[in-house]
Amino acid sequence: MTISPRQPLVLQQVLLLEGPSQDPRRTDVRLDQGRITAIGESCVAAAQAEGVPVLPASELLLAPALVDPHSVLRDPQSGVAETLVSLERSAIAAGYGAVALLPEAIRWRDTAEQLQPAKLQSDLQVLWWGSFSRGGEGRELAPHADQLAAGAIGLADGDELPSLALLERGLSLAEMGQAPVLLAARDSRLAQDGFVREGVDALRAGWPMDPPTSESIPLQNLLSLAERHPQCRLQLMNLSTEAAVDQLGQLGHGQRPEATVCWWHLLADTATLDPVAEGWRMRPPLGTPADRRALKQALAEGLIQAVAVHHQALDPEEQLLPLDQRKPGVAGHRFVLPSLWQELVVAEGWSIQALWQVLCFAPAALLNLPPPRLQLGSQHWLLFDPAKRWSAAADPEAPLAANQPYGRLVLTGQVIAAGLNPGLWRWGSAGDPQF
User: Fold this and answer.
1) 3-state secondary structure the chain
2) Domains in the chain: ranges and CATH
């Protein structure tokens, strides 16, 4: 049976995750033009009476769309590596319903005029982080109140810590109120020009090494600032080391700032990544196997709350530069859910609810968004097939970025439908969906 992706249909006995603190349950769900229009056992009888297709879906998961707490888009309008249009398309196809963009850009977003609402073709939530410092240079305060009044969700900065004097002044002024302040615990002066974390594997391979102190020392400064300014909501961006996890673990629950980790740091380390593979150049750098284990454990225990995509697209020309000359980062929202499902749910026994906590519910809380949940009228949903095999190279919804670490692989697990794009249906291997 061939199904038009925009006609009404019923998913029979789909595994439904409705919201935070709820266990998945099997039920029937009716979809119409990308919206949930009915939930419950009556859906099938009503559909049969109306001639609406009923699709066996017991192997599929219907859940709230994911939330990306921070990514980078340098040129939204005319970028070669990525544009807002291409990011919107690929993020929705990857199951994301909200993406928060950092101020880093060709023209740094540090004023109210540069934080205008995005013009989108869908209801994807694109949110803007304002800038803590002018130009992200860490020397002069940006106009905090003006940016927040213009719609910024909070304040962030570059990929290292601004000067302590500037941080102290900005937090003392407290113009951000309860809006989050997202900062990277990194000091490039301590990094010794390394691009992987110090460890046995990096030493054996001869890579330039970045010591853990390039993160642990600025982290200690941030923790001291958080203690002195409890009225400010400090958040730690992209923690990457076992030492940082230990520092957080020594604090009481009410004393710890919220924190994120980049998805790629949960999957790759200096012992597992092929030297010719994509994904070596990161900031903060890839760590040791012990770092990766500690990050996953911290995520499971709630020391780190959320997984960020931290999408940083490079164009093909820049990607040809030597490792030490190109910009850091990896790209690809589409790899996050399939790879972390395999790593955390299949390999380590995480529950679906636990995975959605770090990919959806906690990131939404970090951004002060309402808790995502599925109900009648919902359009922010994804339909995930954990067993679907797909080729990243043949994916028509791929982003433009050249630096995609799994861009040539065949992966297991794919978002096969998304409410924000009712025309997206990816059952079967190719062509129209067949049931």
Assistant:
1) CECCCCCCEEEEEEEECCCCCCCCEEEEEEEECCEEEEECCHHHHHHHHHCCCEEECCCCEEEECEEEEEECCCCCCCCCCCCHHHHHHHHHHCCEEEEEECCCCCCCCCCHHHCCCCCCCCCCEEEECEECEHHHCCCCECCHHHHHHCCCCCEECCCCCCCHHHHHHHHHHCCCCCCEEEEECCCHHHCCCCCEECCHHHHHHCCCEECCHHHHHHHHHHHHHHHHCCCCEEEEECCCCHHHHHHHHCCCHHHCCEEEEEHHHHCCCCCCCCCCCCCCCCCCCECCHHHHHHHHHHHHHCCCCEEECCCCCCCHHHHCCCCCCCCCCCCCHHHHHHHHHHHHHHCCCCCHHHHHHHHHHHHHHHCCCCCCCCCCCCCCEEEEEEEEEEEHHHCCCCCCCCCCCCCCCEEEEEEEEECCEEEEECCCCCCCCEC
2) 9-63+376-425 (2.30.40.10), 65-366 (3.20.20.140)
Do the beta carbons of residue 262 and residue 273 sit within 8 Å?
no
List, for residues 20-69, the tens digit of each pLDDT value. Answer: 999 999 999 999 999 999 999 889 999 999 999 999 999 999 999 999 99
Prediction pTM value = 0.96
